[in-house]
Amino acid sequence: MPQIAVPTASGTGSEATIYSVITEEASHAKRVLLIKCSLGLVDPELTYTLPPSMTAATSMDALAHVTEAVTSNAHNPKADILADWVIKEIFKWLPVAVAEPDNKEARYAMSLAANLGGVCFSDTCCHLGHATAHSLGVKF
Prior knowledge:
This protein has a single domain (4-137), classed as Dehydroquinate synthase-like - alpha domain (Dehydroquinate synthase-like, alpha domain, Up-down Bundle). The chain is built from 4 helices and 4 strands. The protein has helices spanning 52-71, 77-99, 104-124, 128-137, and strands at 4-5, 19-24, 29-34, 39-40. The strands form 2 sheets. A two-stranded parallel ribbon has the order 1-4. Strands 2-3 form a two-stranded antiparallel sheet. A hairpin with a 4-residue loop joins strand 2 (19-24) and strand 3 (29-34). It is globular.
């Protein structure tokens, strides 16, 4: 059955990966699911109503993906080039997206950055930062 991903935040880039994370509220556990999407529909307009704090938090996930991609033992030229561009875009556009949630250019840039961040970590995998975050993030 085809899987379609429609992100509503600019962070995980899951639509470009085989990974999805589900948080189980009752057990305070995060579960990683391997789901290969057939189609990712990235529409920046779906992020307009995301509160500024969530915009910032989810964008830090995108930044973590690309910084872990370039520091991974599996880093490679494609991921390095994409990650460099994504980092610059996040630093340029995240403050605008937080301050001006309806700014179309900022939301477009952040949606693209998150998507390409997913591509980067699909090519390289995440490491200690994400392992720690999965353990601590669900509790705190």
